[in-house]
Amino acid sequence: MLTLHISATISLLILAPSISGRWLQVNPVEKQLFLSRRVVTESCEFDGGVLVDEKGMIERILTRENVESLLTAKNNIKVIDGGDLALMAGVIDSHVHVNEPGRTSWEGYVTATQAAAAGGITTIIDMPLNSIPPTTTLENLKTKIAAAREEVFVDVGFWGGIVPGNEMELHDMVRAGVVGFKGFLADSGVAEFPNVHKIELGNLFSILNGTGTVLAFHAELEVNNTTTECEGFDCSDPHLYSTYLASHPPEMELEAVSLIASYLPQSDVHVHIVHVSAAGVVPILEKARLGRIHAGNKGWRGGVTAETCHHYLTLSSEQIPAGHTEYKCSPPIRNNTNKEKLWEYIKDHRLDLIASDHSPSVASLKSSNFMESWGGVSSVQFGLSLFWTQAKARGLKLGDVSHYLSAGPAHLCGLQERKGAIRPGLDADLIFFDPNASFVVTPDVILYKNKISPYMNTVLNGKVIQTYIRGQLVYSEGQIIGGPKGILLLKDGY
Ligand SMILES: *[C@@H]1O[C@H](CO)[C@@H](O)[C@H](O)[C@H]1NC(C)=O
Ligand SMILES: *[C@@H]1O[C@H](CO)[C@@H](O)[C@H](O)[C@H]1NC(C)=O
Ligand SMILES: *[C@@H]1O[C@H](CO)[C@@H](O)[C@H](O)[C@H]1NC(C)=O
Ligand SMILES: *[C@@H]1O[C@H](CO)[C@@H](O)[C@H](O)[C@H]1NC(C)=O
Ligand SMILES: *[C@@H]1O[C@H](CO)[C@@H](O)[C@H](O)[C@H]1NC(C)=O
Ligand SMILES: [Zn+2]
Questions:
Q1: Which stretches make up the Amidohydrolase-related domain (predicted)?
Q2: What is the pLDDT of residue 17?
């Protein structure tokens, strides 16, 4: 029954004329009613529908009774009935390294956004590094925009980057609409994106004070020269994961976060810690947040937030085989005790959102040597299923998925009045998700460019059946539908 409805939808959309055949936004021309026995919001699940207007925005949320009366009235509404499939807000992945231009052989906008669409992600935010140029000046941002513009299958926003000496560029990038800035306190892994030095932090907080932007940190600080020099720990076998893990102790994260926290009382800048691995980071941030809330900071979560990533919630160091550098990322995947602590924090709402940190590379940079290989896990396509596989086993609900994967990232990126929830007035970024289905990760289902994954050949629970951005079908049952329909999330004029 469902398949019939979906096929009808697909043929309708393929016949719809596209203005340029390329990226121009082709809005749905008719009202659409998405039906499901299981409409999921952060706080509840119900049997009903979501009415989407001609512009691709959510107009009304309906219970099943309202649906019946709407349909009996003589309305010209296209009905898309998902039956028992869950109807949810699309996922927002606020941490994706697209790498185009410059390292497009690692990943590009077409492949990254197609993979995203297949994974139920309707918006990605592109990280400022690993492309050449990095997004550290307004000109560089324009270069990124030009590369992305005609190629995106989901909506795309941008992080700007902070490197020593680019202070003068930051306000211009805020005006262009970057969601915030990311900086490193330790080596970033690429030469064109040097890290910020401790001594520059104070100035940075002053410059961004009052701009309403987000200052995000890769929070690792080198302690005792451990990062690459193989000093102070047993480095005899670089093919062992334990060697790499010992080179990035939790203290590197804790020290960095404590340093950042020391600047928070004097500033109103929203500070976000990306990819928290060491669970001990969370209490440090909570203390800083409380201080700010007491000082009157009215921002989301007191302007102090943190994300963790699917790999820290799914994998643990004990299971990583020697030589398998597809598991290498930084900060590293830690032990099972740490993983379970992160889950406790999630259950208690002490973390704010979850992202992929999709950081791909070509296979030749993933040798069997953990100390030399590229650090980055590819997973943009699988975040929703990875999270659901673990969350379901721990008794969490689909509403928790929407909280951590859609609403949380929307808030971080200032998109909460536009995306990230099923609510009237927001973009109809919607997915049909089968929470009972499972699938195996194999190279032929992977749509991102380099088919490398620590999840290869594993079974994941929960399958994305269809993805819609602003009311338009972009992915259905294994297929990308039509051309690029995504837009770039920038201020007018950019
Ligand atoms: C998932 O399983 C539950 C319980 O068996 C069932 O009620 C529901 O209809 C199933 N959903 C789908 C989409 O098959
Ligand atoms: C940031 O702005 C607030 C007022 O909004 C001010 O009290 C504070 O001193 C400023 N901090 C810095 C570091 O400039
Ligand atoms: C750094 O080295 C000192 C002296 O060897 C040691 O006491 C300390 O625990 C080390 N710190 C970390 C984080 O490894
Ligand atoms: C780190 O290494 C440098 C140069 O090798 C040395 O001067 C410095 O004392 C070391 N720092 C620590 C904390 O071990
Ligand atoms: C897990 O890692 C932490 C931090 O490195 C360590 O203190 C703890 O002993 C480890 N636990 C196990 C069971 O290995
Ligand atoms: Zn990253």
A1: 87-474
A2: 33
Per-residue pLDDT at 225? 61
Q: What is the largest CA-CA distance in the chain?
A: 76
* Ion ligand 6 — residues with CB < 5 Å: 357, 359
Determine the Cα–Cα distance for residues 267 and 303; give it in Å rounded to an integer: 10
Q: Of all atoms in ligand 1, which is nearest to the CA of residue 37?
A: 9
Between 132-141, 233-242, 329-338, the lowest mean confidence (pLDDT) is in 233-242
Closest among 121, 18, 100 to 483, alpha carbons compared: 18
Tell the residue nearest (CA) to atom 4 of ligand 1. 436
Between the CA of residue 124 and those of 155, 156, 400, 418, what are the distances in Å? 6, 5, 20, 14
The pLDDT of residue 326 is above 90: yes
Atom number, ligand 3, closest to the C-alpha of residue 223: 13
Report d(CA 409, CA 302) in Å as an integer: 15
Given a contact cutoff of 8 angstroms between Cβ atoms, the answer to whether 411 and 355 are in contact is no
Pocket, ligand 3, Cβ cutoff 6 A? 223-224, 249, 251
Contacts of 294 (CB under 8 A, 6+ apart): none
Q: Which atom of ligand 3 is nearest to the CA of 226?
A: 14
Nearest CA to ligand 3 atom 2: 224
Say what the pTM is. Answer: 0.92
* 65 φ/ψ angles, rounded to the nearest 5 degrees: -60, -45
Assess whether the C-beta atom of 75 lies below 6 angstroms from ligand 5.
no
Cα distances (Å, whole numbers) of residue 24 to 149, 193, 425, 488:
9, 32, 22, 11
Domains for the chain: give ranges and CATH numbers: 1-84 (no CATH), 90-412 (3.20.20.140)
Exposure pattern of 314-343 as b/e (b: 16+ CB <10 Å)? bbbbeebeeebbbbbbbbbbbeeebbebbb
In whole angstroms, give the CA distance from residue 438 to residue 490: 36
What's the 223 CA to ligand 4 centre distance in angstroms? 9
Ligand 5 lined by 338 (C-beta under 6 Å): yes
How far apart are the CA of 461 and the centre of ligand 1, in A? 13
Cβ atoms 387, 408 nearer than 8 A: no
Which ligand number lies closest to the CA of residue 316? 5
Count of H-run helices and E-run strands, the chain = 14, 17
- From residue 488, alpha-carbon distances to 98, 178, 282, 287 in Å are 14, 11, 32, 36
The residue count of the chain comes to 494
Residues 77-125 have pLDDT tens digits of: 999 999 999 999 999 999 999 999 999 999 999 999 999 999 999 999 9
Question: Which protein residue has the closest C-alpha to ligand 1 atom 5?
Answer: 436
Q: Give the pLDDT score at 266.
A: 87
What is the bridge-based pairing of β-strands 45-52 and 31-40?
A: antiparallel
Would you state the pLDDT for residue 235?
Answer: 72
Q: Which ligand is nearest to the CA of 225?
A: 4
